[in-house]
Design a protein that fits this description.
Layout: H1 4-15, H2 18-31, H3 36-51, H4 58-71, H5 81-92, H6 102-117, H7 124-140
Helix pairs in contact: 1-2, 1-7, 3-6, 3-7, 4-5
């Protein structure tokens, strides 16, 4: 089960509110991050399915990942392009097999979420709804 602070952490990350994000991160360091990977995965699932579907070509996913990597600020940990493409495909097609290092998967999920939901791509109400749906999904995992 994820904590409400975790959804707030993701919300402040998406909105670029670094000060609030740092505060919430410090609080989560105190109380624990149990359930965060499930919540992050659920937000990733909803974000990917907002942008892609089963008809999306592998080339379109490849271009998205390449563009995302090109826009990543210097100093950001590198992500594996093949792993990112696989995770995205798996979010729209549950038959896709994944065997990706959990740390790499988390970095990929965070970056994809920022690229799909960030930069004003969704309004506050839609973001809150997505986070609530993701929290509900994560609580069932």
């Amino acid at each position: 089960m994820s904590r409400p602070e975790m959804a707030l952490y993701i919300r402040t990350m998406i909105r670029g509110d670094h000060e609030a994000n740092d505060r919430i991160e410090a609080r989560l360091d105190e109380i624990g991050w149990d359930g965060f990977p499930a919540l992050l995965g659920a937000v990733f699932y909803f974000a990917v399915n907002r942008r892609f579907d089963e008809r999306t070509s592998p080339g379109e996913i490849m271009r998205f990942v390449a563009d995302m990597r090109a826009r990543t600020p210097p100093g950001t940990p590198e992500i594996d392009a093949n792993a990112a493409e696989t995770l995205i495909r798996a979010a729209v097609d549950p038959d896709v097999e994944t065997a990706i290092d959990p740390q790499m998967a988390g970095r990929i999920q965070g970056l994809v979420i920022l690229n799909i939901l960030g930069g004003g791509a969704v309004g506050d109400d839609e973001l809150d709804e997505t986070l609530a749906e993701a929290a509900a999904l994560a609580s069932r995992v």
